[in-house]
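for the writeup, i need someone to sanity check this before i put it in the appendix. the sequnce is what the collaborator sent (i think, or maybe the updated version? ugh). structure was predicted straight from it, no edits. if anything looks off just tell me and ill rerun, i have time this weekend
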Amino acid sequence: MAVNLKEPEPSSLYPVDGVLLGYHEAGIKKANRKDLLLITFSEGTVVGAVFTQNRFCAAPVTLCKEHLLSTQPRALIINTGCANAGTGEAGYEDAITICQAVADQLSLPREAVLPFSTGVILERLPMVPLLNGIKPVTTTLADNNWYHAAHAIMTTDTVAKAYSKKITVDEVVVTITGIAKGAGMIHPNMATMLGFMATDANIDQSLLQQLVKEVADLSFNRITVDGDTSTNDSFVVAATGKAKMSPITDGKSRAYAILKEGLIEVASFLAQAIVRDGEGATKFMSVVVENGKSQEECLKVAYAIAHSPLVKTAFFAQDPNLGRILAAIGYAGINDLDVTQLKLYLDDVLVSEFGGRAASYLEELGKHVMKKSEIMIRVVLNRGVVTQTVWTCDFSYDYVRINADYRS
């Protein structure tokens, strides 16, 4: 069960002017399940996107990158049940065929369609149900389908992930709405997580691409469930420009900063929702590393802790075997780290200082914190002024069960 995460209310998800969403039960892997999603954008929409850095990236990722070089997208087609990764040239041709089918249905150039897939790796797409679903999915296109869209991209997710926000930019109300999927194989590294956001803000495309990278770095690139970077990770933001505002053309302007803050809020909610719904998760954990010399070293420490199976299983068991955290800090790769200077806290409980157990620490205090569903691990390096946060979850028996049975 997801950690303090509920299904979104359909009424809480605001339509974005210029965006339509259609969904269909194509039977790609399982019957009677939404598994095909089509998102269309009005003419004039600009798109920014970042993708997995996994060298074994999926065919859809390769094709998306190629299409983005030639034109601005007008449609996204997303399927669950099969990742179309590790499928070689045949998988690439399958992705082209799907894009062409969508393009023909919508009277668009093929390059204006971006494909996305998620599911099992090393299997060919089931092309018959997929292609048969293209026409039906267009018949459900509507601007208020964000709730259904969030369900249509789920795989092992137990809760649909969607969030909306309205902000004011230059006295104009701007809408931001987004959906995401992911529960396992989560450790995005974007220069099986998918995130799609849209806004009616008016912004220059090159600035939007810059903005997407900045937003991803502070949200989706700060989460980990199991340390596995998927072959299919993709994060896309579309700006339709329908809001009656002056275009944002300056990355140092107040309008840019306000839009960035709004996008980060939505993306952070979605990213944290992925962790809260981590496969088998019972704890949501924030790993905060403070007073580091650089962002890089703070993240090294944070991810060493967040990735450690020994740390994650201890939190599931509510066992304050907190020396495991110290060990992770020690092997994080900071060669000149003076361990006598750092402090380790569990929430507000001081656990370690001066290279050993804090004089005030009692195991009962650690147990009390570890019974909570939301916990902060705080490491104060006392080496500088930089702070970074990573979000993760524990490992339970269910994580093994879910992944052992994934193809069943």
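The chain has a mean pLDDT of 94. The domain at 10-276 is CATH 3.60.70.12 (L-amino peptidase D-ALA esterase/amidase).
thx in advance!!
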